[in-house]
Amino acid sequence: MLESIREGVGYVRREPVLRWVVLLAIATALFTRPYIQLLPAEAQFLRVGAVELSYLLAASGAGALAGALITASLGGWERRGALLIGAAFGHGLLLVLFGTQQSLLGAMIFVGLTSFAVMVFLGMANTLMQTRTPDHLRGRAMSVHTMVFIGFMPLGQMLLGALGTLIGINDAFVVGGSIVLAVALYAAARVPALRGALAEHPAGAIARSG
Question: What are the domain boundaries of the chain?
Answer without folding.
Answer: 2-201
